[in-house]
Write a structure and sequence with these properties.
Structural class: alpha+beta
Strand order of the largest sheet: 11-14-19-16-17
Number of domains: 3
Largest sheet: 5 strands, antiparallel
Number of helices: 26
Strand content: 5-15%
Oligomer: single chain
Radius of gyration: 29 Å
């Protein structure tokens, strides 16, 4: 039975938690204004960015669970008609699952915005809980929560729509539960730590390599050092074995919870099917060394006061750079962290080691200073080859763990500083104040200074994206087939919008993109783009006429082409936009945003047995149409009505230098032709065509142009 004193303590704790939630909520709504006013009409984040992908993901999780009855990695509604297996989509189900009630009640846009806001609020609360446990001071812990909730790198990712990266409020809970379990191991604490670990991993697998592993190594190492310092070796060894036994049990529980969602990825990785996840350029999203000294150049207060460093433009050259290039910890937060290292070394050293190591790793494999890549190789060059690191293309995202370390160190420093604050008021005629009042005022000043430094832009960017009435009309129609939104290539913005519209009309989409393109999906989108784009006259291969193009689209069950003229602005896209009426006739619907063309599935268009086509992005018609120039690398597409074996015969004009031509068919093994020359014809075969879409990828080494004079398909000789 609860005693009155215990009931009073519980009530007081709930009151404090409610007050903290109100504080962090108020700060969140202020710093992200006007998101709260536009929950149902605008997506939080910059125009056309990844926010629309995550709105789609909120919808897709609902569809797979409640409508289609499939695992979310089976992407049937993108990349139509091929579809795709995208195991990464099953790896991070936490956000759409917990948002599911809001998705069902108010739609994916509202659920996305609510998850966006809750990410800040809950990060403040969990940051507070961790720093309160470490520094043992409520006021200092509030500052720690502010630092972790609103650090500039988080705000940058939030503006880019990186919802899964900003949902890292389990990271402080992971560190807290690890500390508690190591110091006072028990069954209950092991279960708590295991569940928190699994939830952090299921929010975004990046947190495994960039959060879970380094925190485990440094806090676990700190615990071992603490035990070794005890006078009794027997007691130290016994305590160490006891704590690590329950830690092993917690890890096992986390693996059991995580494994069902990770299984598709593990299977495909074992089969060697996930090479497309390996990044090609790790230096693009690394932290510039000078970025640790650079606040956002769009911070309204600092910019108006002329406090942005002159090297700003070398690191952040536009809003797009805010999402990955910010690493600013703040002057005051850094000062408090240094104070902690100086005055409270025994409590601070594991966090200092963690923070410093993660800062070093965030610099990536090669040092970058002021936008210039140096020759100095850094430790991440080795680390990037290990599991949980090899697939991540953004070492700068280690900033989340850096800032958790900074938050803890700053809270330790603030806890030491606050009792000294009486000297701050010396000689100031502010009247009689208690020590507590002085501390509150001092905390307000510290918090205000941090909140002036941290904002990256104000007001926070949002986008109201109008949805044409035609999409609501489509939602009421039932048909078998897919929709091709144009432009389908060359514009991530257009792809994001198309996926957003799909959450309304709910029909399969021929394009799309989420995280990374699985094999054959890039090629499929390029092929579809060429089917509806004009080709300059040439004699190298037999180009399809309009009737053939319509027949292929109908055979692929593409029922409608929806063009967005406002997004088709470059030269090639304008040519496609102008060609669509010639190819498909007059639009059946048009408004300010879209033009809708219907493809007849029962016309007199004749489908050829074979059709060869090139992608105009990487090939150029030259020499009055008598040659095609391959610009270093490109695709050839083959559409077949039935399975058959063919040879591709080519005549080319080789470069004067030795060149290797590598050819890959349908993501199969590469075939290489060494030292090609212009005196011989080449035969690429036998190509085992599957019915429908096929492709070849051609690459030169060293990278240079090659001119082709003939490309023909013939029945295979062997």
């Amino acid at each position: 039975m609860n005693t009155p004193s215990r009931t009073k303590r519980v009530s007081s704790q709930w009151l404090k938690t409610g007050g903290l939630a109100a504080l962090y909520s108020g700060l969140t709504l202020s710093l992200t204004y006007p998101v709260i006013r536009q929950l149902g009409v605008a997506a939080a984040g910059f125009d056309g960015r990844d926010s629309f992908q995550h709105i789609w993901y909120q919808w897709w999780m609902k569809e797979t669970l409640l409508e289609l009855g499939i695992w979310p990695d089976r992407v049937t509604h993108l990349y139509y008609p091929l579809g795709a297996t995208h195991p990464v989509l099953a790896l991070h189900p936490y956000v759409p699952l917990v948002s599911l009630p809001f998705t069902l009640l108010s739609g994916p846009l509202v659920s996305y915005n609510l998850a966006f806001l809750l990410g800040f609020i809950l990060s403040g609360l969990t940051g507070y809980l961790l720093t309160r446990y470490v520094c043992r001071h409520t006021g200092a812990a509030i500052i720690g929560g502010i630092i972790f909730a609103f650090y500039p790198n988080r705000l940058g990712h939030a503006a880019a729509g990186h919802l899964l990266l900003t949902t890292n409020y389990f990271l402080p809970l992971y560190a807290l539960s690890l500390l508690v379990l190591l110091r006072r191991p028990s069954v209950r604490r092991a279960v708590w730590h295991g569940v928190v670990t699994a939830l952090l991993a299921l929010a975004q697998p990046t947190h495994i390599g960039y959060g879970i592993i380094p925190v485990f190594l440094f806090l676990g190492g700190g615990h071992i050092v603490t035990l070794i310092r005890q006078p009794s070796i027997r007691k130290s060894a016994s305590a160490l074995l006891h704590s690590f036994f329950w830690l092993a049990a917690a890890i096992l529980l986390a693996i059991i919870m995580f494994l069902p969602f990770a299984w598709p990825t593990l299977v495909q990785n074992q089969q060697g099917e996930l090479a497309y996840l390996t990044p090609k350029d790790l230096t693009k999203h690394t932290t510039d060394l000078l970025a640790f000294l650079l606040p956002s150049p769009y911070n309204p207060v600092l910019a108006s006061l002329g406090l942005i460093p002159p090297f700003s433009a070398a690191i952040i050259d536009g809003f797009r750079d805010l999402e990955e290039q910010l690493a600013y910890p703040g002057i005051l937060a850094s000062g408090l962290a240094i104070l902690a290292i100086w005055k409270r070394w025994r409590a601070a050293w594991p966090w200092f080691a963690l923070t410093l190591t993660c800062m070093l790793l965030s610099l990536g494999p090669l040092l970058k200073i002021g936008g210039e890549i140096q020759t100095l190789t850094l430790p991440y060059a080795w680390l990037g080859r290990l599991p949980f690191f090899a697939w991540s293309r953004a070492p700068g995202r280690l900033n989340e763990t850096v800032m958790m370390g900074v938050a803890v160190l700053a809270s330790i420093g603030a806890a030491w500083l606050l009792p000294q604050s009486r000297s701050f008021y010396a000689g100031i005629p502010i009247g009689k104040r208690t020590a507590q009042n002085r501390n509150v005022l001092f905390l307000i000043l510290i918090g205000a200074f941090i909140l002036i430094e941290y904002p990256i832009i104000f007001p926070f960017p949002t986008e109201v994206r109008p949805i044409s009435s035609y999409y609501f009309h489509l939602a009421s129609q039932t048909f078998q087939g897919g929709i091709l939104e144009m432009p389908v290539t060359g514009s991530r913005r257009a792809s994001n919008y198309a996926m957003y519209y799909q959450t309304v009309h709910q029909h399969p989409l021929a394009g799309g993109y989420i995280e990374r393109d699985p094999p054959a999906t890039v090629e499929l989108k390029e092929f579809l783009n060429q089917l509806v784009s004009p080709v300059a006259p040439q004699t190298v291969l037999s180009s399809p006429d309009e009737s053939t193009r319509r027949a292929i689209l109908a055979d692929m069950h593409i029922t409608q082409v929806i063009a967005h003229p406002s997004l088709m602005t470059d030269r090639a896209a304008r040519a496609t936009r102008d060609y669509l009426p010639l190819l498909l006739g007059d639009p059946v619907f048009q408004d300010e945003d879209i033009q809708v063309y219907v493809i007849s599935q029962a016309s007199g268009d004749k489908l050829p047995s074979l059709q060869l086509l090139f992608d105009q992005e990487n090939w150029e018609v030259i020499k009055d149409g008598t040659a095609l120039r391959l610009k270093k690398e490109g695709y050839l597409f083959i559409y077949a009505t039935q399975a058959q074996n063919v040879d591709l015969r080519i005549t080319l004009d080789a470069p004067s230098t030795h060149t290797t031509l590598s050819v890959k068919f349908n993501d199969g093994p590469e075939i290489t032709y060494n030292n090609i020359d212009s005196t011989a014809d080449y035969t690429i075969g036998a190509l085992a065509l599957q019915p429908g879409f096929n492709y070849l990828s051609l690459t030169t080494e060293p990278r240079q142009d090659i001119d082709f004079f003939k490309l023909t398909l013939e029945p295979a000789m062997n």
